[in-house]
Amino acid sequence: MLKASRLLRFMSERVERARRRPARVRRLITLLRALLSQRGEVSGARLAAEALLAYESLEPGEVDALFDSLAADFSPDPAEVRRASDAYSRDASPQNLRRLQRVVEPERQELFRRLNLAPGGTAKIVALRQRVLEGLAEHPGWTALDADLLHLLSSWFNRGFLVLRRIDWRTSASILEKLIQYEAVHAIHSWRDLRRRLQADRRCYAFFHPALPDEPVIFVEVALTRGMSATVQPLLDHESPVGDPLAANCAIFYSITNCQKGLRGVSFGSFLLKIVVEDLGRELPRIKTFATLSPIPTFRKWLADIAKTSPDIGALTSVLAEIDASGTALHKTPAKVRVELTQLCAYYFLHAKSDNQPLDPVARFHLNNGASLERLNWASDVSSTGISRSAGLTVNYVYRLSDVENNHERYARDYRVIASGTIKRLARHCSLSAGNERVVVDSL
Amino acid sequence: MLKASRLLRFMSERVERARRRPARVRRLITLLRALLSQRGEVSGARLAAEALLAYESLEPGEVDALFDSLAADFSPDPAEVRRASDAYSRDASPQNLRRLQRVVEPERQELFRRLNLAPGGTAKIVALRQRVLEGLAEHPGWTALDADLLHLLSSWFNRGFLVLRRIDWRTSASILEKLIQYEAVHAIHSWRDLRRRLQADRRCYAFFHPALPDEPVIFVEVALTRGMSATVQPLLDHESPVGDPLAANCAIFYSITNCQKGLRGVSFGSFLLKIVVEDLGRELPRIKTFATLSPIPTFRKWLADIAKTSPDIGALTSVLAEIDASGTALHKTPAKVRVELTQLCAYYFLHAKSDNQPLDPVARFHLNNGASLERLNWASDVSSTGISRSAGLTVNYVYRLSDVENNHERYARDYRVIASGTIKRLARHCSLSAGNERVVVDSL
Amino acid sequence: MLKASRLLRFMSERVERARRRPARVRRLITLLRALLSQRGEVSGARLAAEALLAYESLEPGEVDALFDSLAADFSPDPAEVRRASDAYSRDASPQNLRRLQRVVEPERQELFRRLNLAPGGTAKIVALRQRVLEGLAEHPGWTALDADLLHLLSSWFNRGFLVLRRIDWRTSASILEKLIQYEAVHAIHSWRDLRRRLQADRRCYAFFHPALPDEPVIFVEVALTRGMSATVQPLLDHESPVGDPLAANCAIFYSITNCQKGLRGVSFGSFLLKIVVEDLGRELPRIKTFATLSPIPTFRKWLADIAKTSPDIGALTSVLAEIDASGTALHKTPAKVRVELTQLCAYYFLHAKSDNQPLDPVARFHLNNGASLERLNWASDVSSTGISRSAGLTVNYVYRLSDVENNHERYARDYRVIASGTIKRLARHCSLSAGNERVVVDSL
Amino acid sequence: MLKASRLLRFMSERVERARRRPARVRRLITLLRALLSQRGEVSGARLAAEALLAYESLEPGEVDALFDSLAADFSPDPAEVRRASDAYSRDASPQNLRRLQRVVEPERQELFRRLNLAPGGTAKIVALRQRVLEGLAEHPGWTALDADLLHLLSSWFNRGFLVLRRIDWRTSASILEKLIQYEAVHAIHSWRDLRRRLQADRRCYAFFHPALPDEPVIFVEVALTRGMSATVQPLLDHESPVGDPLAANCAIFYSITNCQKGLRGVSFGSFLLKIVVEDLGRELPRIKTFATLSPIPTFRKWLADIAKTSPDIGALTSVLAEIDASGTALHKTPAKVRVELTQLCAYYFLHAKSDNQPLDPVARFHLNNGASLERLNWASDVSSTGISRSAGLTVNYVYRLSDVENNHERYARDYRVIASGTIKRLARHCSLSAGNERVVVDSL
């Protein structure tokens, strides 16, 4: 009795929701139902194209209504799940397991699989997930919808299907334009800027998916240098002289950008770095060091937090505030400040945690990939972003092929941070460290 | 208490199975476990390549042991499923649903996703499923393993990812060689045979998947003719004169072949036909009729079955036995025999059923795609296969674009067989029909 | 006796020239001689690459010395030509003709053919000719060298070898960059500018030669419009709305640019226009009018010349001088001035001649291609170039496929200028015309 | 007076020839004249396509008439050449030289340049020259026509324009079919045969010209072996096991074929060999020996010639006649015969001459490329061609990169034949040698 009444409630809620929906959304849902039905099997491509066109012409409010419906109505039927789950509870047979597997899969999954038949379907589904993600905070009910999209896109964007392409000046303008648009670490200001980043002593690689031929999924920019770069701006300067790639002994990964917001949660970065390191190693065997020149995005934020309780650091942050005001006067900072900040930064890497992992998101990415913390660079990124987030500091993570797997496992097991002796020493000498030893470190 | 003892039994069985496994299989399973672990995240491509290499070097018996293990040990943990299922039974919350979804997904799925990182991984996974399918009858325990592979491959081989390519004489020899090898309907005996099938009045189209660049997934062969072909051999004859495609008014789909046995259960045929019909319609607007010239693979078998109880038909089958013995003397068959067999064949299409659907597998495929039964052709395929399976008859299914969707829905709803008036009339006049009217039909 | 002394003089001059040559040029010439010798046959590619490298590192003065030598020393030997020519004069046999043909061909020809073996050789030879052309005025002695290069490049760049490619936003940046750099009619100021010229209602086509894969040889820019454009700036405005190409009835060729200065004298323009007209006609059958919107580059110059003797026109030119000073105030020009200038322009087209052909170089190009003069457009190109050369006027040449061949022949026979009735009437009413009828023409 | 009458005779002969020509040829010549005229400039592509179509539909006799006309009427006007030649004889000015150059160039040249505008024009002109060559012996009057075509095609098929492509099993069937068809050294009997020649331990490279995308110009087949092959059949056997290319230390060029008969006289072979040697050297650095395994095509013929006067050799040739009769019994030949024949063969290479060059055409080709004669191989090619032309012997020519240029020059200077010590010794011991030393040479 209870069950029947619950089912009734479930049905009547669904009917009520449908009644309140805008007419265009109702029509689109009818189309989606047709796509899921027998008709979808024979007229799938046409129905899918129609449905995506209808979706793209919805007003924002209508999109919300559609997503509400996708999240609520294309879900597993709780009663059916209950029955299958009860059956399995009674008898854990393979048949009951398969039935359970079948009923817990939301109809949405099949819906999106069929939408993919439309020309350009994959790109549109990725874009749809981006809108889901953007509204997720406001619409927690979409979580299940998002989870299904992530599950589907993880399967479709399996790294085994990605194709590595080198990007250079012979690449199509429509792809290059996207690099300009997507670059998330060091903005590309003009085509001249971009061109410098594609010359003989630079490399750019991207992953592409066969279903998105003109859309990079992720790209990385590399500078081929003599010695491990300690400063960012010379790498970006479009007037810097072009070096000889054959003379380089170091590959600096100075920027890595995920392009498709709709693919958040599907990770490509480590795989891309790994492949590029192998490729470059083959092409240019003189290159022995593969390192990043990375921002430290939450250092200043962390500094501000601890400054609230520590007067010494409070003094430092006011120095930084002056620097913010006066522009890029970082080179004139007194040695004492320089040393203290660098020590604090080392301390931040080794000791500032969130859920046992390093607080710094870039550190989490590279350490989990098996890199180690190699060197801190003072006055290294004097762009306004560089100063306001990282106090102008950058860090080199180094990828040593022989250590990568080992490092990764130690990090994966207990979040062990592998760092160079210098960085460890700097952290020990930091005013926040227990022993409180304070020594001017010259080796910076 | 019970639960603990059951878990214990589950564990000890697993240990016992592992003990009995050959050493090489054990080593490979260790590798697969590593691939699934943290290490797999950073060294996935290498581990996947190693694992697939190890798999390919196993002896047949070892492969069986491996599949046993994949089917048994990489499955969901029944105890965990039970717990999640119990929790959901108590409280059908979204959280409990997601947990249930997570625990019912076998580890195998993730394992195959990671194996896909190896170069050529997708092709190897498809080949692996083919071996699973080949052993399934003997090893019913592999059913779950097969189901998971099918689920995964259905997602990866979503029709939206397939690429249509026209195959002609400029296509790579390595692909053409595969057509020769795979052709399942009308064998291609030589390169000269193949070449005739690729000339101006023929078309060949195939679907390719980006991860299998040199392997067709499915292909269809088309003859461009004046009038709807009633006989097969002239279409295949490599010495037949080449017609002018611009003068053709009819496209005959005389062969369609699924190439990848490992993709059984993922259907591409209807989608391919649909796209090819659209493509040809655009390229050659004079073509108004899109039809097949299809075998009737189970007609003789059905005939033999009913002959056991019907003396009239018994007489017919002895005529057929004579034909089998004397070779292709079909043209000399007395008119009476010809008429009776054709009527029986029409009857077979309209009334011989299995689970409410037509007995004939080719009919099921085309009728479900929305085609209609148009015409029966006497002495149409006089190859030994043609005679032994279809009594030399063939059938034209016609695809009328305006009717396809409607036909499909009627078939999908209640397996309604759409047939031409002639075919219906033939069936009515068949000796097996109730009214038992017997008229010589001249319009054949 | 005479002959011997002449040969002696010829030889001693050659030796003297060689003596005065810079060392690096002497070494390069030795290399070129080796390339021409037996060694060149077996080591041609290496020698050619070396020679071109050596050439590219010469100082300007050394290049002059090299060209002097190529012009003087790699020429036919006059004595030998004389002998062959004498022999032929005595006996016009085929043998004597062939010998004559052989000896009149300068060694340079073979030299350049062998230089072409170097990687990138063709591009370098085209560049070399550009330098020859640039120095020709100052070094009349290089005329023969230039003639040989032109002969060779005409053969190699036979239009039958050129490949038409559509240029759009998916084209490689390195090619697009060259359009920006080469555009000779309406400068492209930025990538944004360029992008507008490649959108749906624009077309850009270029000819490429297989030996210069990244270098356009010539390109044309087309706007697809409703109605024949009368003004230039809206076509160039990068903020103009993008029209629907399927709604266009007119294709305006608003810019055509020869890219390779080293190919001067090898003509591609007519062939390109012809092919593009055919291509567009096939792709967009609604387009009925193929017209240019062309500058009138020497109109102001001609005006200034005749103003010297004609006071009326002198008054006009002072009006123009005011316009020059005040910027683009062309719209405010009194109607009388407008009419007079337009009449003068029509007169200019029909009556201003040089060697019986129209004075205007663009008119010569299009009329010779079979186009006709259709319409003059007032205040049509208000760029500073447009005003200073063409008084802001432009002209539409129309290509009517049915008339092109006929028009061309009439032009080719006696330089007949085919013009519309309006243009003829305007010219008749011009103050310079005999009858001197002056009527305000409203139909402008 | 004389001149006028000669011109008159020239004109009237031309008119008479025209009168006797078949109507279709007359019409075609009218078309060709139009193509050469002003009209050709604006309607070239259309006229050229029409003309080539008309040419292709001529009957053999009509083709002869056309070629007669091309050879006779599209030639330089003797009177004009005489005038220009007289003028130059009087005054060897650059102007007079240029005029002379202009008038000695036959109109045919320009005609063929314009025919090249037709789609597929280049291929058709190459085919046309093939027909000219085939009829040359019978029509000596076509010599000038042929010379012009050779001149033109030499310019167009400059080696700098050729593109090297590796041919393998992924190459288009239409190209592979041409290899089967063209192979001139060791016939390819089937696709299976061909496939073996494209496997991992074989290489095939071809030159292509951009205007003939599906037609190889020349190709070479290479076997990668351990040790320098001494016998042909194992290389050709399609059942031979496939070796590991990385283990090979030797590249055997066992077949090189010019594909386009219409390009006779334009040489590509040395350039192809040179590039392939460099390519292979880069790809497989273990390969140290680049050698051919070549037939000795005129050895038996030479042997038969000298046998007429030398009784000893007469005895040998009757042994050979027996071998011819008995099939491939070469292995059973008495050692004495084996030694004598090998010595004679060495003698043949070093002493049998025609115009100071080796009699053997293959030797002329490789020696001129800078190869040296390395080794003779007994019972090496036991095919019927191998025995009937080369007595079953083959020869290895070796390309040593360090010696190639030097060898070539010595050969080019005075036809010096560079041979190994063994070959020289064999020749010295030959019965035909002066000293007449006869020793059994074991080192064979």
Characterise this structure.
The structure is a homotetramer of 444-residue chains. Chain A has 444 residues and is of the alpha+beta class. Chain A is 55% helix and 11% strand. Chain A is built from 20 helices and 9 strands. In chain A, helix 16 crosses helix 20. The longest helix of chain A is centred in the first third of the chain and has 19 residues. The termini of chain A are far apart. At the A-B interface, helix 3, helix 5, helix 6, helix 9 and helix 13 of A face helix 3, helix 5, helix 6, helix 9 and helix 13 of B.
Topology of this structure?
The structure is a homotetramer of 444-residue chains.
Chain A: H1 2-20, H2 23-36, H3 38-56, H4 60-73, H5 78-90, H6 94-104, H7 107-115, H8 121-136, H9 143-156, E1 163-166, H10 173-182, H11 191-196, E2 202-208, E3 216-225, H12 233-236, E4 250-258, H13 269-283, E5 289-292, H14 299-307, H15 311-326, H16 335-351, E6 353-354, E7 357-358, H17 361-368, E8 372-377, H18 384-390, E9 394-399, H19 401-414, H20 421-428
Helix pairs in contact in A: 2-3, 2-4, 2-7, 5-6, 7-9, 8-9, 14-15, 16-20
